[in-house]
Amino acid sequence: MGTGTGTGTGTSEGVREYRMSELAEKAGITERTLRFYRERGLLPPPRREGRIAWYDDHHLARLRTISALLDRGHTLSGIADLTSAFESGRDAGEALGLVEPTEETPVRLTPEALADHFAGEATPENLAAALDLGYLTVSGEEIVHVSRRLLDVSSSLVREGVPLAAVLAAAREVRAHADALATLFTDLLHTHAPSSDAERMRPLAKAVVDAELSLALDRHLPGEA
Prior knowledge:
- The chain is built from 10 helices and 7 strands.
- It has helices spanning 20-27, 31-39, 57-71, 76-88, 92-95, 111-117, 124-133, 148-159, 164-192, 198-220; strands at 9-10, 16-18, 47-49, 52-56, 107-109, 136-139, 142-145.
- The model is unreliable at 1-6 (pLDDT under 50).
């Protein structure tokens, strides 16, 4: 079922496969670069059929992710560490020096399911940004979104027409403000109520922020006609 250079072939299981030259062309890199990535362990081994190496869409997705991470300033050594997380199941957030939230419910997704949440927006660039933020981690062959609530909200915003790149950029700013609010509240407790149970205080802090945000939205969003 040959389809020509750059188009790949289909296996009996329906998996798209490519020769090295075809994969390099689709990924926008040279064959020499592809070999280098493979030698560095950035790509899983191809399927071999005699002397022919066959690559599939998982290899293509990995190459696009590597390119996106390089564009965002990651080094090959850092990407290799992240790749090891994909292969070993080690938390990718840990590989990037990120810490998962303690109260949020994580969601396990296949790459296809993640794409379904963000139809047309699950690009390598957005994946790299989500990894940077620590929203996505990897467990074996699955992708884990660290917060069901954030996944639902972000996918809802995308459905409303907000580009996922803009959602992730806003999330980075929200993260900075949230860290500042958490610091403010913990400093308040350490100064005035050092013996208070931190877990008992969490709902109070969250209630204050939720109420203030609600009031701020009342001030900034246009009212009903």
